[in-house]
Amino acid sequence: MRIETTHAYNLIRVLRAVIPVIVVGLLAVLVWNYFFYQTEELAVPQPSPLLVEDVSEVTESIKFLRTEAGRTVFTIDALRNLGMADGTQLFEGVHITIAGQDA
């Protein structure tokens, strides 16, 4: 019986051609992902600033509304509110809406 006619020999011949193609394809996927997804920037949270000594309270995401006769006169949205010991307020990241119009 000649070896060329056995099924094992034919299987080995096919695998000798198929396995390198699969390996090259997997390497191509790895290289593609490395170069094209490397440009994504990760969102790194900013460190909180050091607080001043006279800060008595810190409030995150504050919303203040002023209404008269059931009508909103103005709205203040702020990302952060620093309340000082002397009673003053310092807002950061402020968005103001006056009588329905953005200011």
Molecular structure report:
The chain is an alpha+beta fold and 103 residues long. The protein has 2 domains: 3-36; 55-102, no CATH class. The protein is 29% helix and 39% strand. The protein has 1 helix and 4 strands. The chain has one helix spanning 7-36, and strands spanning 55-68, 71-84, 89-98, 101-102. It has a 4-stranded antiparallel sheet with strand order 1-2-3-4, with no helix packed on it. Strand 2 and strand 3 (89-98) form a beta hairpin. The longest helix has 30 residues, at 7-36.
Feature tags:
single chain, 103 residues, alpha+beta, 2 domains, four-stranded antiparallel sheet, 1 helix, rod-shaped
Protein topology:
Elements: H1 7-36, E1 55-68, E2 71-84, E3 89-98, E4 101-102
Antiparallel strand pairs: 1-2, 2-3, 3-4
Helix content: 25-40%
- Roughly what fraction of the amino acids lie in strands? 35-45%
Order of helices and strands: HEEEE
The strand order across the widest sheet is 1-2-3-4
Inertia-based shape:
rod-shaped
Tell me the total number of β-strands. 4
Structural category is alpha+beta
Low-confidence stretches: none
Mean of all residue-level pLDDT scores: 82
Number of domains: 2
Largest sheet: 4 strands, antiparallel
Rg is: 33 Å
Q: What is the CA-CA span between the terminal residues?
A: 92 Å
**Number of separate helices:** 1
